[in-house]
Specification:
Blueprint lengths: L8 H13 L3 H38 L4 H16 L11 E6 L8 H11 L3 E5 L6 H11 L3 E5 L4 H4 L2 H10 L2 E4 L1 H4 L8 E3 L4 H9 L4 H4 L11
Parallel strand pairs: 1-2, 1-3, 3-4, 4-5
Helix pairs in contact: 1-2, 2-3, 2-4, 3-4
């Protein structure tokens, strides 16, 4: 559902940030659910949720907000995301596995991106933060996934695992996301770095075909690291 050009996203963000400072969960939830209703998932994520996350992070760095506000936002946003996770059914449903590599702890932006893919009729399986590469490879094989998105803020999280990423990319279309991925001088062979614009990134992932027409069933060496 496209964003309504008449929607005042600034007002929604202001309402949410004020409620965050007051630790007012019901107001945050009501504002976000209204944003989802009027703007769709893409609009709510890109115009409200992600900007609020950045504002909370900036407020923490300035000392205006505390760790409790970050935890509050994370918990409340995840609760709102739960309203979107209705089962996706059909013979042509595609599966995407989402994860953050080891020692990457901030998985909420990736969860928000997953909501955008879910709105495009993807079955989203999230492994969360700090996921071992071996576990990611196992999930991809078990689910016969159509795509995998690995997100991180540290460039080193990817650079230290290039060989594992290349092997995983031989098994499934693999996408890297986040500041760490964008900082890489070159993409690992056979792996795609997603653009920072979430709408554009969702279009790139959504262009992936179905596993039945693409996957080789040959055994691939598991990703480790």
């Amino acid at each position: 559902m496209p964003s309504d050009p008449g929607v005042d996203h600034d007002a929604t963000r202001s309402t949410v940030m004020s409620a965050v400072r007051d630790l007012d969960g019901p107001t945050v939830r009501d504002a976000l659910l209204q944003s989802l209703l009027t703007s769709g998932v893409d609009g709510a994520v890109t115009e409200v949720l992600m900007p609020v996350l950045r504002d909370v992070g900036d407020g923490w760095e300035r000392g205006d907000l505390g760790v409790l506000h970050e935890h509050f936002v994370s918990s409340t946003f995840r609760g709102v995301l739960g309203h979107l996770r209705v089962p996706v059914e059909g013979d042509q449903v595609r599966t995407v596995v989402l994860a953050c590599p080891p020692r990457e702890l901030h998985d909420l932006p990736l969860e928000l991106f997953g909501a955008m893919l879910h709105a495009r009729s993807w079955r989203v399986v999230s492994l969360g933060a700090n996921t071992p590469m071996s576990a990611l490879g196992e999930a991809v094989r078990f689910l016969e996934a159509d795509a995998c998105v690995l997100a991180g803020v540290r460039r080193s999280a990817f650079e230290s695992r290039i060989s594992s990423l290349v092997r995983l990319g031989q098994r499934v279309p693999l996408f890297l996301a986040g500041e760490g991925a964008l900082a890489l001088p070159t993409s690992p062979a056979g792996v795609t770095v997603l653009p920072g614009d979430l709408r554009a990134a969702a279009l790139v992932v959504d262009a992936v075909g179905t596993s039945a027409s693409r996957h080789s069933k040959d055994s691939i060496e598991p990703a480790v690291g």
